[in-house]
Amino acid sequence: MQVQKEILWPIDFRKYSVEFIEYKKYLLDLLDNFKEFEFNNSAGLNGNTTVNGFQPDMDILSISDPMIDKIKANIIEPISDEFWQSLRKDRIADTENLKLIHKAWLVEYQEGTYQNLHVHNTSLFTSIWTIYCDPQQPMAAQLHLHNPITESWALGFFQETIKINPAQDVIYVFPAWISHNVTPATARRVVFVWDTIAVPA
Fold first, then answer.
1. Where are the domains of the chain?
2. Is 28 helix (H, G, I), strand (E, B) or coil?
3. Quick one: which of 137, 79, 77, 110 has its CA closest to 191?
4. Comparing 133 with 28, which gets the higher pLDDT?
5. Closest CA to 186 of 145, 134, 116
6. Is 51 or 194 the better-scoring residue by pLDDT?
7. In angstroms, rounded to a whole number, what is the distance separating the alpha carbons of residues 60 and 149?
8. Max CA-CA distance within the chain?
9. Is the pTM of this model over 0.85?
10. Residue 154 burial by CB count (10 A; 0-12/13-18/19+): exposed, middle or buried?
11. What's the rounded Cα separation, in Å, for the pair 159 and 157?
12. Is the pLDDT of residue 103 over 90?
């Protein structure tokens, strides 16, 4: 797994290049099963920032399946632990009595799907893994991260915005309190997202 670390604003932001074909296929098949059986779609509901897409109303990590265990052990936990160590060293003094837990979900962007500006209030950091995107549509559903330091509350805009084109087999990790949104998709894109939360050990 290749790691590319970028420092923004000076916010720790990391990009991981991964290739887990077996895990991607499992997650895409899982998404298809949710749609086939008309599982509850939380996209567009009150409190959900996903509009016009498909987001199964389930914590994917709650599924009892050996493949989920592998995804947790080989992707979620190593990446989250590595990012957590950087936060501990730089910003959080007392962590001995804390442990990390995770919750995860799938989002399918269809043409016109977008995400409103939001933060993940109860989490430490957010990880977004693009498991499918149309290679002919490199700007389908851009992820925008906004610098909170330069936000103009009066005028409602940000002076600095990082615009990230979706790329398959890439995981982006950033602090969950960073305001972010996704622009309207022009093609299909599927992401596996997980939030990491610190709780008493």
1. 2-200
2. helix
3. 110
4. 28
5. 134
6. 194
7. 33
8. 50
9. yes
10. exposed
11. 7
12. yes
